[in-house]
């Protein structure tokens, strides 16, 4: 699964990386411990086809849900069952998003306990997690837009840490993933695969990252 990540690059760098404009009402601050049920930066293609940087609450609430409590259970979507699960299959063709990040956390199980690890690109560049989003309306007519992060089997780096990893999009595939004109489900599913381990690295971080109330740059400092 993927339950924590970081997004700490300057706003201008994120906008430049995705050639995106800011959606109305979007506010950004670096997040060293992004967690489920928080509003996280996301990229979607606007009706004009141009990328928009906005925020979605992490934890998918399908439009047909009775209430929003289901979001706690839907922070991730398994790539292998996207085309089967009712909550996800109708979103693949029309409601796809990118979650920009510069690293994610996973806990490595050992006999002595769990060690929190941060996984990132070797050159520390921004990269894109594949996601789906939806909008739910409560009985009073208030709208809530939420997202989920898609996961896949681990690559050779991740398999020593966890049995799942988030889908990291190849940069060349990002436009196809969020493009509004692509409704070919099989073509889209083919983009969702383990990223190249040769471009990634992992290191241990402080155990304080386990508490979502902790959110500062000390969390990404390596533990020796």
UniProtKB/TrEMBL annotation:
Record EC number: 3.4.-.-
One GO biological process term: proteolysis
Pfam families named among the record's database cross-references: SRAP
Keyword Hydrolase: yes
Enzyme class, first EC level, given as a word: hydrolase
Entries under SUPFAM superfamilies matching the protein: BB1717-like (SSF143081)
Keyword terms, alphabetized: Covalent protein-DNA linkage, DNA damage, DNA-binding, Hydrolase, Lyase, Protease
GO MF annotation terms: lyase activity; peptidase activity; single-stranded DNA binding
InterPro entries: SRAP, SRAP-like
Family according to the record: Belongs to the SOS response-associated peptidase family.
Protein name (database record): Abasic site processing protein
